[in-house]
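Propose amino acids for all 243 sites.
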C-alpha cells in the first residue's frame, strides 16, 4: 500500500514538473515570436527613414509605426552580435512592464523599460533601463557577459534610439551589486554626481578607455541575476554620445 502511494506521489510530482517546464518553455517561445514581429516593424521603418532623409518629423519615421502599436514605446536598444534588440517602454511606475510586453499584454518576461522618473523626450544626466535576465540571453539576459573584459571590448558600443534622437552608449563600467547600493539615483548636484561617477567606476569589474565627467550623461542598464538572492543585481553603465 505504501509503495503504491509513493508511486502515485511520484507520478503527480512528475506531471507537475512537466507542466511547469512546459509553461517555462512556452514563455520563451512566445517572447521570441513577439519580439520578431516588433523587430520587423522597427527595421522596416529604419530602412524607410533612411530613404527619406530629407524629411523631418517631430517623432522620427522609424517610430511612427511602433507608436501605432503602443504609444508607450519611447525608444529602441540593440547590441550587434547579441539577442538584445528591443523596444523600450515607459510607464507611470517601475512595476507595470516587469510583467507586460510591448503590447501591454500580461507576460512573465515583461519588457525593457525606462525608469518612470526619466524624461524620454530629452535625456537627463542619468537614464535607467530595466529588463529581466532571460536565460536564453534575450533582453538583458546577456548583460552579465560585460563582466568579461574581452566581451566588453568586443561589444563596447550599444545602439540607443529614442523618439527624437539617436545615440550610442559607450560601455563604461560593469559589476554585480545588491539593492543596498542605490545606483538608480536620478537627482544630483554636481558634487554628488561626481561622487556617484567615482563610486561606480571603483566598483567596475572591467576597465574601459571611456572617460566621464560631471557634464556627461550616462545610461544605466539594470537586471537581476540568476542567484537565489532576490536583492542581487548586475549593472552596466555607459556614456551617452549623440549621433
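Proposal:
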Amino acid at each position: 500500500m505504501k509503495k503504491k502511494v509513493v508511486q502515485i506521489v511520484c507520478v503527480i510530482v512528475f506531471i507537475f514538473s512537466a507542466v511547469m517546464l512546459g509553461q517555462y518553455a512556452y514563455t520563451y517561445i512566445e517572447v521570441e515570436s513577439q519580439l520578431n514581429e516588433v523587430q520587423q516593424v522597427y527595421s522596416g521603418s529604419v530602412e524607410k527613414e533612411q530613404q527619406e532623409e530629407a524629411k523631418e518629423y517631430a517623432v522620427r519615421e522609424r517610430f511612427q509605426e511602433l507608436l501605432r502599436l503602443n504609444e508607450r514605446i519611447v525608444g529602441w536598444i540593440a547590441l550587434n552580435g547579441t539577442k538584445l534588440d528591443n523596444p523600450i517602454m515607459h510607464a507611470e511606475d517601475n512595476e507595470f512592464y516587469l510583467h507586460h510586453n510591448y503590447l501591454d499584454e500580461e507576460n512573465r518576461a515583461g519588457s525593457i523599460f525606462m525608469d518612470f522618473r526619466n524624461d524620454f523626450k530629452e535625456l537627463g544626466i542619468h537614464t535607467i533601463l530595466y529588463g529581466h535576465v532571460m536565460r536564453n540571453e534575450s533582453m538583458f539576459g546577456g548583460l552579465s557577459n560585460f563582466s568579461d573584459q574581452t566581451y566588453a571590448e568586443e561589444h563596447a558600443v550599444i545602439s540607443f534610439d529614442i523618439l527624437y534622437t539617436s545615440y550610442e552608449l559607450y560601455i563604461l563600467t560593469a559589476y554585480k551589486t545588491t539593492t543596498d547600493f542605490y545606483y538608480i539615483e536620478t537627482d544630483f548636484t554636481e558634487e554628488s554626481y561626481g561622487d556617484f561617477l567615482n563610486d561606480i567606476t571603483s566598483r567596475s569589474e572591467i576597465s574601459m578607455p571611456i572617460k566621464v565627467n560631471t557634464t556627461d550623461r550616462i545610461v544605466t542598464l539594470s537586471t537581476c541575476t540568476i542567484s537565489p538572492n532576490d536583492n542581487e543585481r548586475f549593472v552596466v553603465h555607459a556614456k551617452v554620445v549623440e549621433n
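DSSP finds four helices and eight strands in the chain. The chain has one domain: 71-242.
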